[in-house]
């Protein structure tokens, strides 16, 4: 489910419909360094952190991505499993290394800051050093983590010097914001979609957003910000048009929380997912 708060299009900013007592967002220093202040939440306590994905374009480098969760207890496990699943999606396809097929996290144990990760035997394959480096950097951002230890197929695997290095010279600075994908959501078994999500690779303020059919006709409806400002959400007046792989021209202009700006006007093929 996508929770949204109202966004007024172009330069109007957010409407003042949010409750006066907002929730809390706990951020890691790494998140703030690469993506600035985290967007507020309406209620509860959220956690903002980064996951470092190993680059396939510049070997030995990692790229930080922002992630959010409301479950503090599973932070480390979520980060590790999400890293293993990769970021081969949307406009980032082909830009990151992938773990060997079948690689699984068997267990994660935290003994007074000594975190031991146990993986299935597949991690012994190519790129294991790159993923060890990414995992090491990802987990060290969390409070209380002192050391990371690896096991593969039940055997201890010492970190190499390159995998155990600091982020200096290893982390690529984020580029300007990128449109990630255009995805429509519908209820399971439903024929029509509920909304169309224009996903970005980080929290952004949307300055301009218009969606057009292939013949240039604008799609009408209300536009909202998603939770964590990671997407602009169109609630279309007529949802019957939006089918899998429908070409949609997206005109957009955004700025992230550190002032990096980006814009584009491109055709995207719609993805349709059920929830």
TrEMBL record:
**Span of domain GerMN:** 76-161
Q: Which InterPro entries match?
A: GerMN
Pfam families, A to Z: Germane
- Designated name of the protein: GerMN domain-containing protein
Q: What organism is this sequence from?
A: Geobacter hydrogenophilus
Q: What is the lineage of its organism?
A: Bacteria, Pseudomonadati, Thermodesulfobacteriota, Desulfuromonadia, Geobacterales
């Amino acid at each position: 489910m996508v929770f949204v708060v109202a966004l007024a299009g172009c330069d109007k900013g957010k409407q003042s419909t949010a409750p006066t007592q907002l929730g809390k967002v706990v951020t890691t220093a790494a998140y703030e360094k690469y993506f600035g202040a985290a967007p507020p939440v309406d209620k509860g306590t959220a956690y903002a952190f980064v996951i470092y994905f190993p680059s396939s374009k510049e070997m030995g480098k990692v790229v930080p991505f922002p992630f959010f969760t409301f479950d503090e207890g599973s932070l480390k496990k979520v980060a590790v499993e999400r890293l293993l699943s990769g970021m081969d999606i949307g406009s980032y396809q082909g830009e990151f290394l992938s773990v060997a097929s079948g690689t699984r996290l068997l267990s994660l144990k935290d003994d007074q800051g000594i975190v031991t990760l146990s993986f299935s035997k597949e991690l012994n394959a190519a790129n294991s050093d790159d993923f060890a480096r990414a995992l090491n950097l990802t987990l060290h951002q969390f409070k209380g983590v002192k050391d990371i230890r690896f096991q593969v197929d039940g055997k201890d695997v010492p970190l190499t010097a390159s995998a155990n290095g600091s982020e200096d010279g290893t982390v690529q600075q984020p580029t300007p914001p990128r449109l990630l994908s255009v995805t429509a959501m519908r209820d399971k078994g439903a024929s029509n979609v509920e909304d169309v999500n224009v996903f970005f690779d980080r929290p952004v303020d949307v300055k301009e957003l218009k969606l057009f059919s292939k013949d240039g006709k604008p799609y009408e409806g209300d536009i909202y910000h998603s939770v964590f400002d990671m997407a602009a959400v169109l609630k279309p007046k007529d949802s019957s048009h939006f089918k899998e792989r429908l070409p949609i021209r997206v005109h957009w202009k955004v700025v992230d929380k550190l002032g990096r700006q980006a814009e584009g006007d491109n055709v995207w093929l719609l993805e349709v997912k059920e929830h």
